[in-house]
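Saturday, quiet lab. Running sequence design on the structure tokens for the scaffold JK sent over.
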């Protein structure tokens, strides 16, 4: 079993995200993360899906997605030739005694303090999933109140583009 990230160019039409996600549901495939956003061309949307499976399952996912009427192009983004990022907001309980330790961790990971109050702070961090997991691990010694994550978004390196 291996992880895969698919970049899918679709027509920006009502229900397209539901149809793409529904394909996974009907076939019993797991979506580990899904993101979608408009492109410069307002009529198109890029959907990025992270999933996993053996080679046969991943090939089947790609073929089934290509059959959807709204899908213009689909491409698996190899990890060694693409850039993957995720955004995470994390609320941590803190007081005067722990604030300095948390700020040290924030600096090491080049994260940003988005909001700070007397009893908590919200931290923004972006990067690959491994970086975000390592950040969470270091903050586990403190009281993590909430986490919100965007899911992976990715682009292939070089001049290759989805059209």
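Result came back. Writing it out in full:
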């Amino acid at each position: 079993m291996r992880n895969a990230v698919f970049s899918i160019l679709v027509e920006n039409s009502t229900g397209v995200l539901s149809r793409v996600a529904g394909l996974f549901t009907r076939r019993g495939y797991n979506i580990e993360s899904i993101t979608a956003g408009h492109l410069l061309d307002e009529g198109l949307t890029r959907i990025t899906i992270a999933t996993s499976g053996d080679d046969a399952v991943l090939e089947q996912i790609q073929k089934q997605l290509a059959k959807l009427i709204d899908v213009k192009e689909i491409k698996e983004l190899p990890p060694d030739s693409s850039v993957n990022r995720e955004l995470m907001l994390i609320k941590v309980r803190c007081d005067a005694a722990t604030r300095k330790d948390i700020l040290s961790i924030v600096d090491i990971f080049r994260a940003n303090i988005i909001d700070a109050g007397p009893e908590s702070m919200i931290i923004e961090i972006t990067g690959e999933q491994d970086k975000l997991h390592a950040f969470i691990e270091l903050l586990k010694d403190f009281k993590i109140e909430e986490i919100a994550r965007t899911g992976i978004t990715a682009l292939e390196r070089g001049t290759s583009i989805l059209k």
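Notes for JK: The chain has a mean pLDDT of 94. Residues 33 and 110 are 24 Å apart (CA to CA). Ask whether to fix the surface positions before the next round.
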